[in-house]
Specification:
The protein is mainly alpha-helical. The chain has helices at about 5-15, 20-25, 30, 45-55, 80-170, 170-175, and strands spanning about 5, 35-40, 40-45. Strands 1-3-2 form a three-stranded antiparallel β-sheet. Strand 2 (about 35-40) and strand 3 (about 40-45) form a beta hairpin.
């Protein structure tokens, strides 16, 4: 197994920057100089140097494997009171789970109703706008139809009056 680590590898092992490694090598040169070596033409540290550097920096040793904490299952007698409590809690948990499922269903139904209400509201608004536009158009058309005869009557009345005046006094209009 390789016991020499480049500065980049040391930084990755200790989860720090390469600048931090170089700084500590310079600061603690009296302690760490004995562990410095070369790997592929690059400055490197021996495994013991990496361990020493981690101690100096107050970091965990990257080579220590955490041993899983053994779980000890002991068979012990359950106190009857505890057994009764456990049964009660199990039953209560089942009831709560059922209530949660019912609430989820109710929430889903409520959301669906809300979404349907939104769709219906939008459809009603659209229909109302269309009806309003139709009624506005009809009203405008009726108003225009109503104005035309009055306007035309005024124009034709003046023309009739002129023609009548012309017929009665042809000398005035020929001048």
């Amino acid at each position: 197994m390789n016991d020499d680590y480049t500065i980049l590898e040391v930084a990755n092992l200790l989860e720090i920057t390469t600048q931090a490694v170089y700084k500590r090598l310079q600061q603690d040169s009296e302690v760490l100089d004995g562990f410095i070596c070369s790997k592929g033409g690059k400055k490197a540290l021996k495994k013991e140097g990496v361990i020493e550097l981690s101690k100096l920096m107050g970091l965990e040793n990257p080579f220590e494997e955490e041993e899983p904490t053994p779980t000890i299952v002991e068979e012990t007698e359950i106190n009857p009171g505890y057994e009764e409590l456990l049964n009660y809690l199990r039953n209560d948990n089942e009831k709560l789970q059922k209530e949660i499922e019912e609430l989820k269903l109710e929430l889903t139904r409520t959301r669906n109703l809300w979404e349907n209400d939104l769709k219906n509201r939008d459809e009603e608004r659209r229909q109302h706008e269309e009806a309003r536009m139709r009624s506005d158009a009809l009203l405008m058309k009726a108003m225009m139809n109503q104005e035309k005869p009055r306007l035309l009557d005024r124009i034709f009345k003046k023309d009739k009056k002129k023609n009548k005046d012309k017929a009665e006094n042809p000398d005035l209009f020929n001048q």
